Amino acid sequence: MASSAFWGVDCEGLRGALLAAWNGQDLSARLAISTIAAAGSAVVVLMGIILVLHWRAGWRMERADRLRGRWLSILLDPATKSRPVVGRGDLETFALVWAQLVESIRGDYRESLVAKVRDAGIPRLLRELARNGNLRQKLLYVHVLGSLKDVESRALLAEYALLEDPFLSMQAAAALLEIDPRQSLEMLLPHFVDREDWPLSRVHAALMELDVALVSEQLVSHILQALPDAPLRAVKLMGCIRQESRTMILRMLFNFQQEIPWETEAALLEQIQDPSLADFARERLTHPVWQVVVAACKALGRAGSEQDVAVLSGLLEHPQWWVRYRVARAIAGFPQVRPIDVEMLAACQSDPYARDMLRFALAEQSLA
Fold first, then answer.
1. Three-state SS letters, the chain
2. Mean pLDDT estimate for the chain
3. pTM to 2 decimal places
4. Which of 41, 146, 176, 356 is deepest in the core (most CB within 10 A)?
5. What is the model's pLDDT at position 163?
6. Distance between CA atoms of residues 364 and 105, nearest Å
7. How far apart, in whole angstroms, are the C-alpha atoms of residue 302 and residue 5?
8. What's the mean pLDDT in 222-234?
9. Helices (H), 162-277
10. What is the pLDDT of residue 80?
11. Residues 67-93: what's their mean pLDDT?
12. Residue 368 binned pLDDT confidence (cut-offs 50, 70, 90)
């Protein structure tokens, strides 16, 4: 029988030679050859898997780019009557596109975009999948529902706002404020004040997006109901309310005879902007807690005048560095105080640290 050949190679002869070589090896050599063959096969399989995953990722990216272009062309064309078509599998991609787009648009044009998305039935899909996705998807879908002002999602968002998870609950609270500011703020304000796991900066940013009259009304009412024990976080949120309301509340709190914690006292001083409240800061320049003295110096820097230079300069030799720094910054920052006046005051100081601090503050002021 003629032996089979492939590309001129005698396959039967090659097979016989390989078999003879294999039979002629000892056990250790056979194990080594088997190991090399298995490793080579694994490398080939792994490279195949990597190539398939790479191709799949590239295909997904190309598809996402096509969908993004199609959705944007529909959303940004005011003349078209088309609505974006979004399947369940593409909802996350659409939510990312929408979140990026809506952040840069305000006014009536934004409302027209929201109307297109509502008409496409996307809020219903968002509500359904917001219950079953992972945390990242829930955060994204909740944010989009808030930007769409989807009234039907209020029950879901109110449920999420009461969760222990600080990220999802805070995101749901912010979304509720976008949908129904008045009713939601009334419900959420106690949580804004009491929940320490909600970053105060995020709460402040959410409140700043609302009507200042609404925030003033409800936050002032909350603080008045809590008197004489003003919650510390509520005091720190007073920057969101009207100046006249803030001045009124601060005056009431400072005039209480009952002793308040120094943390609250420092937070109250941080809220002083009105020159009519400067006396309350002056009274606390001798406070035994240096953090309160720092807050009083900062308050005088905002609401005081050049007449405070004399009393402030007496603190330039304070043992606490932060007090000396804030005193020097307050003096150098008064509009009526000239740089030459600060230099002369520095030259009159017997303490070298006081001289250096005044000159340092003056240098910072000149850079600002």
1. CCCCEECCEEHHHHHHHHHHHHHCCCHHHHHHHHHHHHHHHHHHHHHHHHHHHHHHHHHHHHHHHHHHHHHHHHHCCCCCCCCCCCCHHHHHHHHHHHHHHHCCCCCHHHHHHHHHHHHCCHHHHHHHHCCCCCHHHHHHHHHHHHHCCCHHHHHHHHHHHCCCCHHHHHHHHHHHHHHCHHHHHHHHHHHHHHCCCCCHHHHHHHHHCCCHHHHHHHHHHHHHHHCCCCCHHHHHHHHHCCHHHHHHHHHHHHHCCCCCCHHHHHHHHHCCCCHHHHHHHHCCCCCCCHHHHHHHHHHHHHHCCHHHHHHHHCCCCCCCHHHHHHHHHHHHHCCCCCHHHHHHHHHCCCCHHHHHHHHHHHHHHHHC
2. 87
3. 0.77
4. 176
5. 94
6. 38
7. 96
8. 82
9. 166-179, 181-194, 200-208, 212-226, 232-236, 243-255, 262-270
10. 77
11. 82
12. low
Average pLDDT rounded to a whole number, residues 339-362: 92
Q: Kindly report the backbone phi and psi dihedral angles of residue 6, in degrees, each rounded to the nearest multiple of 5, phi listed first.
A: -140, 120
User: Among 269, 260, 198, which Cα is nearest to 226's?
Assistant: 260
- Give per-residue pLDDT as tens, 121-136: 899 999 999 988 899 9
**Tokens linked to 174:** 């912010």
